[in-house]
Every structure is written in structure tokens, then in C-alpha cells.
Design brief:
Rossmann fold, alpha/beta, 7-stranded mixed beta sheet, binds 5'-O-[(S)-butoxy(hydroxy)phosphoryl]adenosine, 23% strand, 2 domains, 30 strands, GMP Synthetase, Chain A, domain 3, 656 residues, 8-stranded mixed beta sheet, disordered C terminus
Length: 656
């Protein structure tokens, strides 16, 4: 019972291309092994060295204090995150380099140099101070993808306020609850955002809910769409009116290493959202290091990460990571399918983007839209691709490599979590050979392992639980205001061993590569075999007609559980308007396909076609919801719940 059976068969392997390795930070397996061996033997010493890449106002004394399950890194030191992301570049040749190139959905483009970014961040930081925001206060950020959103995070960091970014697609209720839970005193927001060509109200839509946040004293509203916006006298002010007159000089607060940098509520497919708390020095250290190494960042890169700032990826790899490394980061405001499904490819072509980082859910949607779309554009500026958010099924990986990467770009499949703050498992692209569907090896200094429920390492290819055996710098420090939940969620399963439990099922292959099998909550038990749903889904998606699949179990007298697969089919297959009989035939074909691909044990008992799968706002399939539907049996002929989530909404979960 304790093991999870792994059934995915995948043996393709891709060596890094010589041209890529030649100029990359770690260009060979030998160099990689040397680095990793030393780091794994003494992670504390390894991270001590990486922390020295930061700018310190006062050097730290102690590298690690670990009193299970509480951790402190780099204590005794003083620093500031905004100084590390912006100021350090002002005395170098990067001063006039583009920090941010932003494209609005209507097509307007802004380029912001590091010098200009510094001016804007300082003015905004002074504005916050002028409104009475102090070190230690929590500031909510509820914005779209505009440069001011990153500036808002940095301005908070500069004055030692803790930011709490709430995804701009969340409802007023969700916003209110997160502001209240974190006791926010100030909110930075905007009048409206562009959504597939139409300006839609942001502040106006949630305005009433702000009255239910008693701690909220100030609201600053950025003008973007000129939306009619209610403004409450004494609380709400226009951004430009407050910010423009401010001085562009702003003394950065000198902060302890463990000063709270931000709270971010996990989207969570289960339960009440948790306020994941990250602090300053450890977070910055690992984010800076992983950004440079995983994306093999070079001075001339233009880097595009499609994540919204409302997610951890938007914190670590849209804002802090690229800026700390002096990179040029490309930001895009709108929907991936506006005006058509080739918007990303068009922007890569026009802006000569060289690194592209997105999510499997988006890649599958692009596949579904058709190969002809990327073919319309010159994508030859790309040199590296990344994936994050869920297991990437090998078929999507292969499509990404061929149709976006032109067969030449390495793909970094990066495993991490809101809680881990930074990438934990990923290939180093110049050294580690990749295999479609695995995030490969832990980063140097990250002691990730797959263990059984007694905490013993699993044998090769034996399914088990993914744990981290040694603290890492960018680890969450607590669940805001709920230490009990922090302990229960992450440290109660392997108390004796003092391991952090990720909640994910995984296996390690004979090369030590980690294959994520999905959240353990999503494991299904069929005839005594515990199967990760991700593997069955991956097999389904490998069928040429299938775009996406979600597999859940319903109770079955005979087998314990029966597998139900929810399947969306490719647009071109859908457009041919299949008849009922054809769909029934396709069901049989798919069942047999899975039986052939991975064995009869995984053959779905039931297949249901749907236009869209229910997903969290960050694009994760909410299998729990589907599970409820198949167990209560209320779904016969009724797909209304599913249709509430349009297929496009899934992409960046930001269209409405
Ligand atoms: C969970 C964390 C990390 C930023 C976005 C998600 C799944 C994430 C991968 C990957 C397989 C992955 C895991 C993890 N996940 N990346 N490369 N391969 N699974 O952050 O919302 O905190 O979710 O996403 O299940 O535990 P998150």
C-alpha cells in the first residue's frame, strides 16, 4: 500500500548541444558532478558562498540555524531586496540597459532601463512612506501585468514593508479575505486591465469589498484603462498624483536577513489558502543563483516568463530573479490568444526573445490550437525553453522542443513550489541530458529524495514520496499567522527524520532523475495498485486526438476504484463535428490506447469528453472537484460546472 506504482514508460534522452554547452555556466557533466558533489556534502557551505553574491549592508555571522521545523539563514546580516534588484546595477555598465521591456495588450510598448526603474521605485517607495506605511506593515498589490506591479513589489521591499500580491483575476471576496488575513494597511491597484481587447474594471469591480477590510488605510490607483472608478475620499488616491511629485532619491531600509519580504497565498486546490511567508536573504540568495544557473542567463538575453505576478513564479522569476542578475525581462500584459493564439510567437519574433518560460497547461493549449501558428513566425532568437507548474507530459515536451525550440533549444523542466520559493529540481541546461517528462536532478545543495512512508529511500523506479532532507535558503518560514498549519502541512509526516514533505508523489529512475507523479492527494488505488494520475493522463495526451486529460477515481465494488478520464479533444478534431457514434468509438479507442501504452491496469473504465477542465487560477486541474462529481454521480448530462471554466481561461487564468 505504501508504494505508488509507476507505469510511465519513457526512454528518450537528449544530450545538451555542443554549441549551447560551450558558452554555458556549467558546460559538462564533469563540471556539474564536481559542483553538486561538493554542494550536497556540505549544503551550508555551498549556500554560504552563494549568499556572498548579494550586496550586504552588514555581513551575516551565521549561515544556518536549524531548530526543526524552524529555520533561519544568514543571521546577523543586513541587506535590502530592492538594493539588490536595482541599485547594484546603477554603478555598472548595466545602468542604461533595459531592465523591463513591456508590451501592453493593445500593442503599446515601454522600455524601462535600470536607471529609470530606480527612479520609479524610489518615487513609489517615498509615496508609501508619505502615506504612513512603515517597516513591517503589509501592503496588498492587486494589479494586472504592468511594470508598476514589479515596481510595487520593489518599493515595498525598499521601505521594509511586506508585500502581499493577490492575483488580479481573483474575486473581491478572495481579495478581501487575503487582505484581512494579512492585516494589510495599504493596497496598490489599478482602474482597469485589458482582457482580450476590452478594458475591464479592476478596482471598480471589487470596491465594495474594500469596505470590509478594517485595517486598510490607503489605496493607490494606477490609471491604465481610464475606467470609471469609484474613489473613496480620504482613503483612495490616484497613483500619478501621489507618485509624480516625489523625490527620486529614497534611502533604503537596512533590514535583517530574516525580515519578512512577502506573503503569498497559495492558490490551493484544497482547503483555505495558506499565507506562505518568505523572508529576505535566503530567498534572494537561492532565487539569484537558480535564475542564473537554470536559465543559463547571459548578458544579452531577453527573457520572457509568462507567469502572472500573482503567482510565486511572478515573484521569483519575473521580478527578483531576473533583476538581481541584471537581465532584461520581457513582460506582457494580456491574454495569450489576443488577437490570436500566436500572440506569444509574434512577440518572440518581434522582440527577439531568447529565453521563454511557461506552463504545461499553456503548451497543451498551444498544441491544441495547431502547429501552423508557431510556423508563421521566426522563433530563431530562442535559445532556451522552460516549463513549470505541473508534470509536463512527454508529448507536450516533444511538441515544445520541435515547434517552439526548433529542435535546438534545451528545455528546463523546473520543479518547485510556492513554499520552496525557488527552483529545486531542474537540469542545468549546458550539462544535464534531458528526458521528456522529468525535471531531472536536484540543484546543487538541494537534498531531494524519494522515500517510502517510513522515510527510507526508495529503490530506482519505485514510486514514493518526494521529500527535502536538508533546509534550503528560500524555504518558507511559516504559514502567516498559523504555525500549527505550517507544522502539520509540511513537517508532521517525517518528524523523526526531520524531512520537509512536498506533498508530491515521485520516483527516481536509475540515473537519479526525479519523475513527479502528481500530488499524493491525486493518487488513485486500482485493484491494490496505487497509480499517479499524471501518468495515465500523460498516456491519454499522447493520443493524437487528445488535447488534455484529467483522471480521477470513483469507488468500485470490485476493483476498489475505477478510473474516470475527462478528456478534451483537439480543436481540429472537434471542428470536424464528430457524431455521437464517432465519439463512442473514440472512447473505446482511447481505452485500448491506454491499455497498450501503459498496461491494462491503467485502462480507464469511463471516458467523458468535455470542452474544458476545471482548473485553479494558476492552471492546475482541480481533480478534487472532478472526484466529487464522479462519486456523487450528479454529473450525468450536466457539464455546466465545467463550462464555467473556459478553455482559454486556463492558460494564464487571467481572462474574464
Ligand atoms: C506544485 C506546486 C512552482 C511554481 C508554480 C507552481 C507541481 C510544479 C512542477 C514540475 C511536476 C510540478 C507540484 C508542486 N509542480 N512544477 N516541473 N513538474 N510538477 O507552484 O502552485 O505552489 O504548486 O506544482 O505538484 O508540488 P505551486
Amino acid at each position: 500500500m505504501s508504494e505508488i506504482s509507476s507505469i510511465l514508460k519513457e526512454s528518450r534522452k537528449f544530450e545538451p548541444k555542443k554549441e549551447f554547452s560551450k558558452s554555458s555556466h556549467i558546460g559538462s557533466m564533469a563540471a556539474y558532478n564536481k559542483l553538486r558533489k561538493a554542494a550536497d556534502k556540505n549544503p551550508t557551505a555551498f549556500w554560504n558562498k552563494q549568499a556572498k553574491e548579494l550586496q550586504w549592508q552588514k555581513p551575516f555571522k551565521k549561515t544556518l540555524e536549524w531548530k526543526f521545523p524552524f529555520v533561519k539563514w544568514f543571521t546577523g546580516g543586513k541587506l535590502n531586496a530592492a538594493v539588490n534588484a536595482v541599485d547594484i546595477h546603477l554603478t555598472t555598465g548595466r545602468r542604461n540597459k533595459a531592465a523591463i521591456i513591456w508590451e501592453g495588450e493593445p500593442g503599446d510598448v515601454r522600455t524601462i532601463t535600470y536607471q529609470q526603474l530606480s527612479i520609479e521605485v524610489n518615487k513609489l517607495a517615498n509615496s508609501l512612506r508619505s502615506m504612513g506605511v512603515k517597516k513591517g506593515d503589509v501592503v496588498g498589490i492587486y494589479m494586472g501585468m504592468v511594470p508598476e506591479a514589479s515596481m510595487a513589489m520593489l518599493a515595498c521591499a525598499r521601505i521594509g514593508a511586506t508585500h502581499n500580491v493577490i492575483f488580479g483575476g481573483f474575486s473581491g471576496e478572495a481579495l478581501r479575505d487575503r487582505l484581512n488575513d494579512s492585516k494589510a494597511v495599504c493596497l496598490l491597484t489599478q482602474d482597469g486591465v485589458y482582457r482580450r481587447g476590452v478594458p475591464s474594471s479592476l478596482k471598480g469591480a471589487i470596491d465594495e469589498k474594500l469596505d470590509e477590510v478594517p485595517t486598510l488605510k490607503n489605496v493607490l490607483v494606477l490609471k491604465r484603462t481610464n475606467q470609471e472608478t469609484p474613489m473613496l475620499e480620504g482613503r483612495d488616491q490616484w497613483w500619478h498624483e501621489v507618485v509624480n511629485p516625489q523625490s527620486s532619491e529614497c534611502k533604503a531600509e537596512v533590514l535583517d536577513s530574516e525580515h519578512p519580504l512577502f506573503i503569498l497565498y497559495t492558490s490551493g486546490s484544497t482547503g483555505k489558502p495558506k499565507g506562505i511567508l518568505h523572508t529576505t536573504a535566503g530567498y534572494l540568495t537561492q532565487v539569484k543563483y537558480s535564475m542564473r544557473m537554470v536559465f543559463d542567463l547571459q548578458e544579452s538575453d531577453i527573457y520572457f516568463c509568462t507567469a502572472d505576478i500573482g503567482w510565486i513564479t511572478g515573484h521569483s522569476y519575473v521580478t527578483y530573479g531576473p533583476l538581481m542578475n541584471g537581465a532584461t525581462v520581457f513582460l506582457y500584459e494580456g491574454a495569450p490568444n489576443f488577437p490570436a493564439f500566436d500572440r506569444f510567437w509574434d512577440m518572440i519574433d518581434r522582440h527577439k526573445i531568447s529565453i521563454f518560460y511557461t506552463a504545461p497547461t499553456a503548451i497543451r493549449a498551444f498544441m491544441r490550437a495547431g502547429d501552423h501558428l508557431p510556423k508563421k513566425h521566426n522563433l530563431s532568437s530562442l535559445r532556451l525553453l522552460g516549463s513549470v507548474g505541473e508534470p509536463i507530459n512527454p508529448e507536450a515536451w516533444m511538441w515544445y522542443q520541435k515547434h517552439i525550440g526548433g529542435g535546438k533549444c534545451p528545455i528546463v523542466d523546473t520543479w518547485w513550489q510556492t513554499e520552496t520559493g525557488a527552483i529545486m529540481v531542474s537540469p542545468m541546461p549546458g550539462a544535464v541530458p534531458t528526458k521528456p517528462g522529468t525535471a531531472t536532478l536536484p540543484l546543487p545543495g538541494i537534498l531531494a529524495d524519494v522515500v517510502n512512508k517510513d522515510g527510507k529511500s526508495c529503490k530506482a523506479n519505485e514510486g514514493g514520496l518526494l521529500v527535502i532532507k536538508h533546509p534550503w535558503p528560500s524555504m518558507l518560514r511559516n504559514v502567516f499567522g498559523n504555525t500549527e498549519r505550517y507544522i502539520n502541512a509540511y513537517f508532521s509526516d517525517f518528524k523523526k527524520q526531520k524531512y520537509y514533505f512536498t506533498g508530491d508523489g515521485a520516483r527516481k529512475d536509475k540515473d537519479g532523475y526525479i519523475w513527479i507523479m502528481g500530488r499524493v492527494d491525486d493518487v488513485v488505488n486500482v485493484s491494490g495498485h496505487r497509480l499517479g494520475t499524471a501518468e495515465v493522463e500523460s498516456a491519454l495526451v499522447a493520443h493524437p486526438k487528445v488535447a488534455e486529460a484529467a483522471v480521477v477515481a470513483r469507488p468500485d465494488d470490485l476493483k476498489g476504484s475505477a478510473l474516470v478520464a475527462f478528456v478534451t479533444i483537439n480543436i481540429k478534431d472537434l471542428l470536424s463535428n464528430p457524431t455521437h457514434l464517432e465519439l463512442e468509438a473514440l472512447k473505446t479507442e482511447l481505452k485500448n490506447w491506454v491499455a497498450k501504452e501503459i498496461g491494462p491496469i491503467a485502462k480507464p473504465d469511463d471516458i467523458r469528453f468535455t470542452d474544458a477542465l476545471p482548473k485553479t487560477r494558476s492552471g492546475k486541474i482541480m481533480r478534487r472537484l472532478l472526484r466529487e462529481m464522479v462519486t456523487t454521480g450528479k454529473t450525468t448530462g450536466d457539464t455546466s460546472t465545467l463550462e464555467d471554466f473556459s478553455a482559454l481561461e486556463k492558460l494564464r487564468a487571467d481572462e474574464e
